[in-house]
């Protein structure tokens, strides 16, 4: 960078760092968002899950054959299960409403014909009424596990009545071995969300400086003063361009730091899981991800500066650039869809290629050829963005548009 361009860069960077909105978007949000989100969500989820597991479930059992002396025995079985409060009822019609209003956590309806089906060694009908909840559906899962134990008890009684040892109906003892590495497993899980967040921070981190350095200076009347300085249009462009690129990239970098801090701050993570997450956040992996984000930051900087320079005022620039967030988010969100993988075609699609490549890098399954294509396409995109931005600054009808 030539000396006048460096002077412009220092001047614009100093002005940018004085802007409170820029500092919040570039530093505060990415640095604190990950720790607050991950620690808060982990604590809340653990609390809710523990509450749902420890809660005593109110369950009604309506046995149509209980009065005839042919009861199923299910109610007695459930009474001996921990964490269940069993009530036997006769009014079956009221049960759905009582479950819907959460007066009951669940209800079990045993219709007529149950005992006959059991005696005939046929599947016996049973109806479970429940309401899906936001407690990870733990109450339903707990009750289904209890019913599975009752079913196993009936099966063993049926087999022994036939003179068959229950173990003899299991001809195979399958030993399952998952060959996926812990890094690949957790990388696929984390790799879907992290690039989505990084890309958004790259964009928003450069958005406010870009608006202020072009449309903002137009509105304040300081752009003309800068253009009358000894620095050429190209040097001014490079100085502003470098500031916007730096702020966008720094925002993504700070988001990475915040993510690492948040992982270290969350308590209760199993050691195996923590080791896998730390392997995902290894310095080499993060360095490669940041290397992808650098040319993307350059591309965003050129695009944002061009749109900001076209606007007549700060407010107009915001109205033009803000909807662009959707254009950035959609390709990043597509990478979250199952079955979307990094290939020759997707490696050439802007933003989408960064999301997919980041996911593969984090999982440790990236193909060198695909990564090379991603880097090549991003470098071409960044170069084109710089050239287009420089030409945009040379047009009088754009710079002095009013």
TrEMBL record:
Keywords: Membrane, Transmembrane, Transmembrane helix. The keyword Iron does not apply. The chain crosses the membrane at residues 21-42, 193-211, 241-261, 281-311, 323-349, 369-393. It is found in: Membrane. This is ABC transporter permease subunit. The keyword Oxidoreductase does not apply. It comes from Nannocystis bainbridge. Residues 21-383 form the ABC-2 type transporter transmembrane domain. Its main location: membrane. It is a multi-pass membrane protein.
């Amino acid at each position: 960078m030539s000396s006048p361009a460096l002077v412009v860069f220092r001047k614009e960077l100093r002005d940018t760092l004085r802007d409170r909105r820029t500092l919040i978007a570039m530093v505060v949000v990415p640095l604190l968002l990950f720790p607050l989100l991950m620690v808060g969500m982990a604590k809340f989820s653990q609390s809710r899950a523990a509450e749902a597991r420890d809660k005593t479930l109110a369950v009604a059992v309506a046995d149509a054959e209980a009065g005839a002396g042919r009861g199923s025995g299910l109610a007695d079985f459930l009474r001996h299960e921990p964490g269940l409060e069993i009530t036997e009822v006769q009014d079956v019609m009221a049960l759905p409403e009582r479950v819907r209003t959460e007066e009951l956590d669940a209800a079990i309806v045993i219709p007529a014909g149950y005992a006959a089906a059991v005696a005939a060694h046929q599947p016996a009908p049973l109806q479970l009424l429940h309401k899906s909840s936001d407690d990870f559906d733990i109450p339903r899962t707990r009750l289904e596990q209890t019913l599975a134990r009752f079913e196993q008890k009936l099966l063993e009684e049926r087999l022994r009545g036939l003179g068959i040892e229950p173990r003899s109906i299991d001809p195979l003892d399958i030993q399952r071995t998952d060959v996926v590495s812990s890094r690949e497993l957790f990388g696929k899980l984390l790799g879907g969300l992290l690039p989505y967040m990084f890309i958004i921070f790259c964009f928003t981190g450069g958005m406010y400086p870009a608006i202020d350095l072009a449309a903002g200076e137009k509105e304040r009347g300081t752009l003309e003063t800068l253009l009358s300085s000894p620095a050429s249009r190209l040097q001014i462009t490079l100085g502003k361009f470098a500031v916007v690129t730096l702020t966008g990239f720094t925002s993504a970098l700070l988001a990475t730091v915040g993510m690492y801090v948040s992982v270290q701050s969350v308590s209760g993570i199993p050691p195996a899981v923590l080791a896998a997450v730390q392997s995902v956040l290894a310095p080499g992996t993060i360095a490669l991800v940041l290397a992808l984000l650098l040319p993307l930051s350059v591309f965003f900087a050129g695009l944002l500066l061009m749109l900001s320079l076209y606007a007549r005022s700060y407010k107009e620039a915001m109205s033009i650039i803000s909807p662009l967030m959707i254009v950035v988010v959609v390709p990043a969100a597509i990478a979250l869809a199952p079955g979307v993988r990094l290939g020759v075609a997707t490696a050439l699609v802007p933003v989408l290629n960064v999301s997919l490549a980041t996911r593969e890098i984090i999982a440790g399954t990236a193909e060198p050829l695909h990564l090379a294509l991603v880097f090549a396409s991003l470098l071409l995109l960044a170069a084109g963005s710089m050239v287009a931005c420089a030409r945009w600054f040379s047009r009088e009808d754009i710079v002095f548009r009013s």
